[in-house]
Amino acid sequence: MREQGETTAAVFCHARGCHHSAVISTDRFPADLPFPDIALRVRCSACGSREVGVMKDMRAHYARCRSGAGPMAELPPDYRVIGRDVPWPDEQA
Fold it and tell me: In the predicted model, what is the mean pLDDT of the chain?
């Protein structure tokens, strides 16, 4: 998916009672890491669970398409991404 220009991922916590979600940057992961394996390297920042799922960031895909610039365009300036626009939970603010 990164070969197709994807630089973000939607992450969802599946832990009972949490259901936190976030959009993260994929920049910190090795370029050859298969996209689904990102889930093995993250945990929920709300509850600490490793029961997370990762999928294509469809909100970013549609935001790019709506901008008229196409699916490979930059994200709109109001689109907030953890690890790019705000620090990772394990980093100093």
Answer: 83
